Amino acid sequence: MKLTTLRELRIGPYKFRKVPTYIFDDQYNVTSYPNLGGLIGNDILRRFNVILNYDRRMIYLMPNSHYREQFDYSYTGLGIYWIDGEIRVGDVMKDSPADKAGLKEDDIVLAVGNNFSNNIQTYKNLLQNPGDKVKIIVKRNGELQQTFLKVKSIK
Hints:
With 155 residues, this protein is mainly beta. Helix content is 10%, strand content 49%. It is built from 3 helices and 12 strands; from the N terminus they run βββαβββββαβαβββ.
């Protein structure tokens, strides 16, 4: 999977520029494209109140307070998830900053920067500043490991 930006995205009367998107190989033709598929989803939809009219097969989008917010262009290639009371690494994109920092799937994240709060949203926020070099402490196979991850920008 690769992270990039779309030059422009139009949905009805709404237009967005430089939209972050994930591009992935579509080996199973899920998205009906012969080779590639893309995901934009949540970062667009959170900007609207969405009403689904099932009877008429219509979708209504009404801009909400998030409509004009900037997109997040930070790139770590790291997916972290709350699993059984722990923050675990779930995904590490190949050749990403997280991969280069040596992070592995199933690492338990104990700290990001100097923050040991065990709060996943706080950790995600600390990883959103392109150019920052962030210390990450993980537990792998019962041993503590420290690494540094340089947050990149896709812009």
